[in-house]
Amino acid sequence: MSDARHVLVLPDRDAAEEVALELAGRFGVAEEPHLVRDALAGEDDAEDAQWLVVVEDPQARLDPMALDEFAAEYEGWLEAP
Questions:
Q1: What are residue 10's phi and psi, to 5 degrees?
Q2: What are phi and psi of 4, to 5 degrees?
Q3: Closest C-alpha to 23, from 15, 13, 10, 33
Q4: What is the pLDDT of residues 22-63, one digit of tens each?
Q5: Would you give the DSSP letter of residue 56?
Q6: What is the model's pTM?
Q7: What confidence tens digit (pLDDT) does each residue in 16-32 have?
Q8: Looking at beta carbons, which pairs linking 64-72 to residues 24 or more positions away fall under 8 Å?
Q9: By Cβ atoms counted within 10 A, which residue in 7, 17, 25, 79 is the most buried?
Q10: Dihedral class, residue 33 (left if φ above 0, else alpha if ψ from -120 to 50, else beta)
């Protein structure tokens, strides 16, 4: 099975940091997720940015629907592959 990568989109840095911390306890994610600031196209204001939490899933064992529901708790979503 090929490596999988999941991208959770969150509304702000605080939510992204909370999600990254919670992933290990809730989903058993061993590798620390990557946080990436994603400025919205055409926006200069630093406040108008989404944050991405990139989760490597080498064994493809994480349930995308569960990740999407989890991100929704923080007003986010799982980006479609």
A1: -120, 155
A2: -115, 150
A3: 33
A4: 998 999 998 899 999 987 655 555 556 899 999 999 888 999
A5: E
A6: 0.86
A7: 999 999 998 999 998 89
A8: 64/6, 66/27, 67/6, 67/8, 67/27, 70/8, 70/19, 70/22, 70/26, 70/27, 71/8, 71/9, 71/10, 71/19
A9: 7
A10: beta
